[in-house]
Specification:
The protein is of the alpha/beta class. It has 13 helices and 22 strands. It folds into 3 domains: about 220 residues, FAD/NAD(P)-binding domain, CATH 3.50.50.60; about 110 residues, FAD/NAD(P)-binding domain, CATH 3.50.50.60; about 110 residues, FAD/NAD-linked reductase, C-terminal dimerisation domain (Enolase-like, domain 1), CATH 3.30.390. Helix 1 packs parallel to helix 4 and helix 3 packs antiparallel against helix 4. The chain is globular and about 70 Å long. The site of nicotinamide-adenine-dinucleotide (NAD) has 24 residues, from helix 6 and strand 18.
Length: about 475
């Protein structure tokens, strides 16, 4: 095959794109992957938003800040007193950068070992399954493939009155790279990014005010879980204003004046940094050449069917640039599915059981339907709940806030949803996902042996509680 001819070309090397590239190469296909992302060193950095300025760096800072917060808020309960702890910001941010470099470099190594050819530049789909790559230096080259997969991801939504300037008004990437702890951090949007990055800087000592336009907190989560989480965040000192519509953000010399209104009228707050985290939009601008036949919807997302096929022969799209939740793991599974379909196998993604995780303290995680969804869809259901406060391991580690709720079908007992708020529930949710994938019942979970003493016993007890036979609390 000529050097510019491939079986598969993937535009975008984020979790969706690079996973797709590796799976396609495993299946014996000749694969190219095009990406324009530059790291701090100015060189190509594979891994997209997730590895460079999203999931991985935020988890690094969430952990560092949790350790710092714990010195004053957790260790004293263990009888350990640390006086006057200090933060070395260079190490704090440097550790995160090192982790990012390790993982973005890791994608390069995986490409090498799987014989995926990376191209550095901006890819554009042309008619006839050609991909034009524009380099920073103005160079252009064209590749050809039987299959092209668009995996261009998403970018932060900008508010017209609060445009990102990278200094005072920042996005997620900016909030992961602050040189100092801001005294006052304003956040627009109490979604996943607002809560996670708001938590990081709160724990490091900033006064954090989060302004959320909607009247309900975490509307997509189970109502009781959202309430329990809100209580904990309040205790931590995160100030969250609901029903707060921001109308203006004025950058002054050393601060930002933010105007918002709620049911009590108009208010103004002054902050040192303003993080705008009001969602992300599909990044598809400039990726489609003329007459490719690929369609986008009103939100700029590439239109695809349930198999991520665009309707144009050999053209697919996966990850944040198509419908569905903007979650790395959803994009990864779509990447695997498409690679397998191209190789003539039976690729499939079960969109009904995609776990959600918010990495706050306590963490929040869920999969499947909420009670509200069951009510709206007229599905008869029953629930079982169990608190971490009644679990020996959770109390021993001094992280006993939150609970697990199992929602099961009232007649068949099939698990419809599992909702969690508590310590390390990002890991505990996996058991629920497995049970739901195997179409398990709450009784299945209830009859499985769970190690003692572990946090997973809370899942076990919540499942027992569906049938009012929890063993370590009154039913
Ligand atoms: P989000 O959709 O999670 O939250 C945005 C919030 O901003 C919403 O609550 C919305 O009501 C609010 N909002 C919108 N416009 C507003 C306005 N003008 N004023 C005040 N509030 C406003 O979006 P995000 O937090 O920016 O995250 C972007 C995407 O990245 C999401 O799809 C998210 O799933 C994904 N992400 C996931 C994780 C994770 O899985 N842990 C982490 C980070 C990001």
């Amino acid at each position: 095959m000529a050097d510019n001819k491939f079986d598969v070309i993937i535009i975008g090397a984020g979790p969706a794109g690079y996973t797709c590239a590796i799976r396609a190469a495993q299946l014996g296909l000749k694969v190219a992957c095009v990406d324009a992302f530059k790291g701090k060193d100015g060189k190509q950095a594979l891994g997209g938003t997730c590895l460079n300025v999203g999931c991985i760096p935020s988890k690094a800072l969430l952990d560092s800040s949790k350790q710092f917060w714990g010195l004053a808020h957790n260790l004293p309960a263990h009888g350990i007193i640390v006086e006057n702890p200090k933060v070395d910001m260079q190490t704090f941010i440097g550790r995160k950068d090192k982790i990012v470099k390790q993982f973005t470099g890791g994608v390069g190594t995986l490409f090498k070992s799987n014989k995926v050819t990376p191209f550095f530049g901006t890819g554009k789909l042309l008619k006839g399954n050609q991909v034009e790559i524009a380099g920073e230096d103005g160079s252009k080259q064209t590749l050809q493939a039987a299959n092209v997969i668009i995996a261009t991801g998403s970018v932060p939504i900008e508010l017209p009155f609060a445009k990102f300037d990278g200094k005072r008004i920042i996005d997620n990437a900016g909030a992961l790279d602050l040189a100092d702890v801001p005294k006052r951090l304003g956040v627009i949007g109490a979604g996943v990014i607002g809560l996670e990055l708001g938590s990081v800087w709160k724990r490091m000592g900033a006064d954090v005010t989060i302004l959320e336009a909607l009247p309900d907190f975490l509307g997509a989560a189970d109502t009781e879980i959202a309430k329990a989480a809100a209580r904990e965040f309040k205790k931590q000192g995160l100030e969250i204003h609901l029903g707060a519509k921001v109308s203006n953000a004025q950058v002054r010399k050393n601060a930002v004046e933010v105007t918002y209104s709620d049911k009590d009228g108009e208010h103004e707050i002054t902050v040192d940094k303003l993080l705008v985290a009001v969602g992300r939009r599909a990044y598809t601008q400039g990726v489609l050449g003329n007459d490719t036949g690929v369609k986008t919807d009103q939100r700029g997302r590439i239109e695809v069917d349930e198999h991520c096929w665009t309707g144009v022969d050999g053209v697919w799209a996966i990850g944040d640039c198509v419908r569905g939740p903007m979650l790395a793991h959803k994009g990864e599974e779509e990447g695997v599915m498409v690679a397998e379909l191209i190789a003539g196998k039976a690729g499939h993604v079960n969109y009904d059981v995609i776990p959600w995780v918010i990495y706050t303290e306590p963490e929040i995680a869920w999969a499947g339907k909420t009670e509200k969804q069951c009510q709206d869809e007229g599905i008869p259901y029953k629930t079982g709940k169990f608190p971490f406060a009644a679990n020996g391991r959770a109390v021993a580690i001094n992280e006993a806030a939150g609970f697990v709720k199992v929602v099961a079908h009232a007649e068949t007992d099939r698990i419809l949803g599992v909702h969690m708020c508590g310590p390390v529930v990002s890991e505990l949710i996996a058991e629920a996902v497995v049970a739901m994938e195997f179409k398990g019942s709450s009784e299945d979970l209830a009859r499985i042996v769970h190690a003692h003493p572990t946090l997973s016993e809370v899942v076990h007890e919540a499942a027992l509680s569906v049938d009012k036979r929890a063993l370590n609390k009154a039913n």
